[in-house]
Amino acid sequence: MNSVAAEDPLVCPGCDMIVATEKAEVPYGSHLLCPRCRFKLRSPRKDTVNRTLALSLTGLILYIPAHFMILLTFDMLGMDEAGSIFDSIRALYRQQYGVVSLVVVLTAQIFPLLKLGMLFGVTLGISRRIYTGALPLLLRWYQHFEEWGMSEVYLIAILVTIIKMEPTTGISYGAGFICFAGLVLVMACISSTFDRQYCWRRIEELRAERDKEAKAPAETLHLAKGMIGTRAMTSGLVQCHSCHKVVRHEQPPATGHQLFCPRCGAKIHWRIAHSVGTTWALVLTALILFFPANLLPIMEVVFLGVPEKSTILDGIIYFFQNGSHTIGLIILSASILVPVFKILGLSVLLYSINFRRATRLLQKSIMFRFIAFIGRWSMLDIFVIALLCALVDFGFFTTVQVAPAAVFFTGVVLATMFAAISFDQRLLWDLVDMQEQ
Ligand SMILES: [Zn+2]
Ligand SMILES: [Zn+2]
Questions:
Q1: Which pTM does this prediction carry?
Q2: From the CA of 371, how far away is ligand 2's center (Å)?
Q3: Of the bound ligands, which one is closest to the alpha carbon of residue 14?
Q4: Which residue range forms the structural domain that includes residue 102?
Q5: What is the pLDDT of residues 183-214, one digit of tens each?
Q6: Can you tell me the mean pLDDT for 20-35?
Q7: Structural domain count, the chain
Q8: What is the 421 CA–ligand 2 centroid distance (Å)?
Q9: Up-side HSE of residue 54: CA atoms within 13 Å toward CB?
């Protein structure tokens, strides 16, 4: 078999348009894009369950050595300081920056582990053909945690740290470094082999098999061909935000009446509740925090007892002055350009909805998906500082400490990431229907 059938009807989660009313065959290795907003609707992967199962198991095996074995050893004037990823988080915690260390421990250690464990559970259940109520729950939570596990950002942070320290310090690589690089490679392979829509369909089929004696088969939706290109909401169809299952629901639910997805159990809503208001609040929070994050020092290097504080911009200038233009550019993008772009971009989208500007919707949709994709990369600078704190600890000679801007900067990253989550991109395309009415 060289293709898989996408379930019917097919509704675009990006713009709420009905794309197909019957099964559409999608060949392996190709994508099915929404003709209106270019949202990637289906991207079938060959043997996705077994490959993801093998990869997630490999990831789990690599996890412990990658996080607890020595990552790097710094040698300065005959003094050695070695540290693992776990040490970098402990170092932050010791410096009274509890919030920052909590975010680092969650994004660099706990969420990647949960992601691997959940994927392992889901694919094991599907491959063994065992349905339990935990299966849809695990996949749903995997989707929630997906962008919050930031191992690949952490790997780039390690490389930046190495380039930053190389001129003054002898660096040797530990077994933790090899294992961590291997872990990130495994995670990259997972993102190119895991087909969540296929897994959702298999979970649904497994449950139907289990329930076939107990219950009548679930209702299948039959839609007229003429409904292609119309808005699902207008046709009385509502799509689950979590697993993208489409169900019939004639009226917007009355207050107090909550509809739950028959496949994954998530709450189903026509549009994310209070999306515009919540997103505005988070964007404004990010904007306010952005100023102290950039104006206050983010890091303090104590050299022979003399403290020298530096801001994010000082760090970038340092790389440019030392000829590391690529690294300078990476930090400039991650720490300044990305947050600014996210704040401005989301403001433009919210403004469009508030003032009903239904222009350039395709560009705006693509911009939103780009904003959601790049959000996590801003954590780069925080990870670099966490690593420097752990590894540059040579007593009186030199140490690195976190400074207050780290708290504000972490706030900017969190606020913009939550803003992208609370924004419902379908509201942009609802503007078209409002104009037509
Ligand atoms: Zn679409
Ligand atoms: Zn669902």
A1: 0.89
A2: 24
A3: 1
A4: 45-134+148-211
A5: 999 999 999 999 999 999 999 889 888 887 55
A6: 82
A7: 2
A8: 17
A9: 6
